[in-house]
Amino acid sequence: MELSSKLRDLILNTHVPLVLEQFPLKWECFEGSLHDWCKRFDKEATCLPAFELMALADSSTPQWERKRTKSSQLLNMQQFLRKYGVLDGDSTHWAAYQYKKADEVPLSCRSGIGFSSFGFPDIGNDYRFWLGSEQANTPCHYDTFGVNIVVQVHGCKSWLLFPPETPLQSTRIPYEETSVYCLENFYAPDPAKISSYEHLGRQAYHCNLQPGNVLIVPRHWWHYVEAKSTSLSVNYWVPLKVDMDLILDEFLVMHIVESFVRGESNQVKQYLLNPNQLDNVSTKPSDLFAQFEQAVQNLESGKSTRQLYDTDYISQADWKTLLNSINLSVRPLEVMPHEEYKLLLNANSKRFRVAANPPETTPISSNCELLVSSMCAPRVIAEMKREFFRRLGKSNSL
After folding, report:
1. Calpha distance 226→157 (Å, rounded)
2. Where are the transmembrane segments (predicted)?
3. d(CA 341, CA 49)
4. Residues 211 and 83 reside in one and the same domain
5. Of 59, 95, 113, 382, which residue is the least packed, with the fewest Cβ within 10 Å?
6. What's the pLDDT tens digit per position in 170-182?
7. Residue 294 belongs to what domain range?
8. What's the number of CA atoms in the CB half-sphere (13 Å) around residue 382?
9. Do 353 and 61 meet the contact criterion of CB atoms below 8 Å apart?
10. Number of domains in the chain
11. Is the peptide bond before 163 cis (omega within 30 degrees of 0)?
């Protein structure tokens, strides 16, 4: 059995995050230093990269994307390294160029990238780039679709992960089509409320992902990600057959959220929607219903525009045997020691600044926000879908 086939089976059947240490992945575009990569980017790019900035002091709530700003002074990649390469006592912001599609990056800066070594050939350009300075972070969330393969190229990133059943406070505000966020603020926990975070330590997993390492994030695992130094990584979400059913859930959530924002002010839209969703609001409910009906038909027929993969097709005993047979350093993560978890929380809580940054002004009432999140809660959406299939004459989703 080829190594790539073994890795594919390992990735699709793991129930815990995996770290592949110093994976022998030779991608031509990343030969040399981060400075070399940035220099090539600047030489070939047709326009300057649009960096997002986030105030370090904006910490009383998670650092949602809606609170980020565009740099008033346009920077090229090399200027970004000089200005944000090391944050010091005078630094006021972190900066990032992240969640970028392959075609947003010059050809020489992505040459050789592929995931066939992991057992997933022919993915085309279906991967993302993540470049950020120290403290650049993604608020805690889980991805609604896929198994996530993350290749750390330069720098170090901290990954704090929780299994799907962890009792985090889910929210769909801000709404993003492929992400479910939680309200817990792991960037800067409120010291007065830190005890409410401590019980989560019984289910907390953690790693500092180093250059050359690969992280496998299983389906629906919560994760809070933060750059510990200037960091560049590439990721790919493996599409799964079970995702076809969840596409219906996401259409239901989309309809609910869009019903709240349709006709509202830009201020309300910018609060409820993630920035990358602002241009995707349907003008007519019928457009959304047509997409929903197509998704139902696809689910019934099993059709998809790309290859989808099965999960959980081998037993955990066979999975462990497979793990031991691979001649690579593959480390399943374990629950982190509780004292280490408390140290991480306490260190991050020192960033919490209410006086320097008053709470964000909300354009909707707190009750309205609670209503949106309640209506879009995963278990509520799942029940709506079950009722739909019951009325359709099906005992359950297909």
Report:
1. 6
2. none
3. 36
4. yes
5. 382
6. 999 999 989 999 9
7. 244-308+365-392
8. 3
9. no
10. 2
11. no
